[in-house]
Amino acid sequence: AAGTVPRRRPPRSDMGRGLTLLLLPLALLAVPARAEGGTAAAEEVHIEVLHLPEACSPKSKKGDLLNAHYDGFLASDGSKFYCSRTQNEGHPKWFVLGVGQVIKGLDIAMMNMCPGEKRKVTIPPSLAYGQQGYAQGKIPPNATLIFEIELYAVRQGPRSVEAFNQIDKDGDKKLSELEISQYLKEEFARDGKKRHPSAHDEILADIFKKNDHDGDGFISAKEYNVYQHDEL
Predict the structure, then answer these.
(1) Domains by residue range for the chain, with CATH
(2) How confident is the model at residue 197 (pLDDT cuts 50, 70, 90)?
(3) Which keywords annotate this record (predicted)?
(4) Around 232, how many Cα atoms within 13 Å sit in the side-chain half-sphere?
(5) Are 148 and 110 in contact (CB under 8 A)?
(6) d(CA 144, CA 82)
(7) With pLDDT > 90 as the criterion, what percentage of the chain qualifies?
(8) I want to staple 227 with a disulfide (CB 3.0 to 4.6 A). Which of 97, 100, 198, 232 is the partner?
(9) Following CA atoms 156, 21, 190, 185 in sequence, which dihedral angle do they give, to the nearest 10 degrees?
């Protein structure tokens, strides 16, 4: 899809509110934002608040799980290169803020944002796709980007201590195959999407392949990489 750049490999599917991001990193417009010629420090993201709800809480912070719609435009001619409402059957995008799952400029632009808030942000090339651009997404080199963002939800990040404890039913500080299998079933039931019967087993196997580094059949807190506060 135009505008979606996997950092490592394409996501298999949207597995619900948080699970895809819980153990299988999902890339959304994600490429490393590299400073071109050392200019990043001099360039900033310009943020224009279009709508601010009276009740602005909670405000987004690094590590939070966000749900948002956004449209992307080229500043040079105003042409639209991305629209989240035309992707994934129009569902808003879920991603973790501040960990590189979106371009650096969006990670910056969506900090301290509250549910219901709308922003128009302008992102310089050094905090987007830089000199290389992104041909598949129709983004030329050295392109300044404009995004119109509507944030729907701010939730506890998927790799928080609380999330780990939620899955760790027996409290032994490690996640078993049974515990993660049960969590998968709960998430699948919650989002209500139809999936091939083999999806559960494939995802479960992939989770352990990517996270059980010592091969002992469990995912420890260290392997799960639990983040606290601003350590994410």
Answers:
(1) 46-155 (3.10.50.40), 161-220 (1.10.238.10)
(2) confident
(3) Calcium, Endoplasmic reticulum, Glycoprotein, Isomerase, Metal-binding, Repeat, Rotamase, Signal
(4) 22
(5) no
(6) 14
(7) 43
(8) 232
(9) -120
Please, what's the b/e burial string for 165-182 (b: 16 or more CB within 10 A of its CB; e: otherwise)?
eebbeeeeebbbeebbee
Q: Is the pLDDT confidence value at 227 over 50?
A: no
Token pair belonging to 56 = 């602005």
pLDDT of 86 above 60: yes
Half-sphere CA count of 151, side-chain side, radius 13 A? 32
208: which 2 tokens?
């352990």
DSSP assignment of 8-61 equals: SS------SSSHHHHHS---SS------STT-GGG---EEEEEE--SS--SPP-
**Would the pLDDT of 29 be above 70?**
no
Amino acid 226: pLDDT? 53
How far is it, in rounded angstroms, from Cα 16 to Cα 176? 21
